[in-house]
Amino acid sequence: MKKIFILVVIVLIGSCNFNTQMEEARGMEKRRLYLIRHAKSSHKDVSLADFDRPLNDRGKSDTKLIGAELVKRGIVWDKLIISPSKRTKSTAKRLAKALRFERDSIRQDMALYRCKTQALIRTIQDLDPQDKAVAIIGHNPSIIQAANHFQKDTIFTEIPTCGLVVIEFESNGWKYLGNKSGNYLFFDYPKKYKAKKQKSQRSSVAN
């Protein structure tokens, strides 16, 4: 009788675990993370603190270029979280304008300015599960390290200014994202498109 009771308990536990796994599987959804480094900033005014440095002309033109490419790709963000530095806020404002993202919905997080990778990872894991596409605009080295942490397909040693790495996950919540749990989707940066434009112009002249 005791053996039968133990067997029944084991079967019930197994059934509960199976049901839990099935519920978790049903809750799986695709999520996209956009890790973006701020655009090029100015060092012209040496009296300014690092936090207060604005974008230079190249930074402004790069945000316009990348913003246009994101629009071409049909990118839509549910949330945008940024470092509160001046250059990051300017980058966010310009990209948000291109994507028609509500500026009032931009969230600032001082932890992103301090460039602590674990703090950035926690910020991502604490995201609302209702948000499926989230952009983070911050600084190196934490942007590079987070990109390498969340996916294993590509190892990044440098992400240039206004560059972005996009990683896709299949999960029922951001809190479940861990080391190498995502899939690398694409890497965009301004010079890639500038090189294409220059090549196209040379080809037109040659013809």
UniProtKB/TrEMBL annotation:
SUPFAM superfamilies linked to this entry: Phosphoglycerate mutase-like
PROSITE patterns xrefs = PROKAR_LIPOPROTEIN
Q: Which InterPro entries match?
A: His_Pase_superF_clade-1, His_PPase_superfam
Pfam families, per the entry: His_Phos_1
Classify the source by domain of life: Bacteria
Q: Would you tell me the protein name for this molecule?
A: Histidine phosphatase family protein
Give the classification, highest ranks: Bacteria, Pseudomonadati, Bacteroidota, Saprospiria, Saprospirales
